[in-house]
Predict the structure.
Amino acid sequence: MDNSPTALFDSYEQDFKQIVNSIREKLEGGGENERGEQRKAVLRRVEMELDEADEMVSQMEIEIQGIPQSIRHSYQNRIKSAKSDLTRYKKLSKDTLASLNRSDLLGSRGTPTTSDEPYGSSDRTRLLAGTALLEDGSRRLQDSQRIALETEEQGADILRSLRGQREQIQNARDTLTRADTSIDRASGTLKKMIRRMYQQRVVTGGIILVLILLILLILWIKFFR
């Protein structure tokens, strides 16, 4: 798994581009041949995709906070470009819906209603629109599950990293404890050595003093008796 600071940003940006491509196909593709309820159903799907694209931009704005300052400027420009595309397609969707509503209004005024029109066409259109909405909902659910899995994996990686750091800190603490014990032992040994050195100096001084006294005693006996 890519753990770079821009991995999630790139993932959200890729999802945004896929959603925008789908919106572009619906608004600028062959949708002009669709009429009435079919076209409205398409525009409803576009509105849902625009909301999803808006959410991707929000996620990108969150992720950019963790990107290093040295490369953040280029990613800010990418967010600006994404916002510009989103604004343009929102306006295009709104204008298309308004144009469709005007066309329906003019058509309902200028075209007489005929009894030959099949009653099942409206139900079929609604069924197709419902099926398309269900497919869009399933796709969004899959995307949400994928994002949730990625987030869960990142959380697990963070927990593993924190666990490793905790073990390192514990090991360092144990090492310091052992070092303190060793220092205490060395300090005790050094104190004992110093104490013995002083004892040896006292004994040595005592021996020298005794020898001096013996010499003086021998000299006194030799010269004064």
Summary: The CA atoms of residues 158 and 164 lie 10 Å apart. Residues 111-119 have pLDDT under 50 and may be disordered. The helical segments are 7-28, 36-63, 69-110, 120-224.
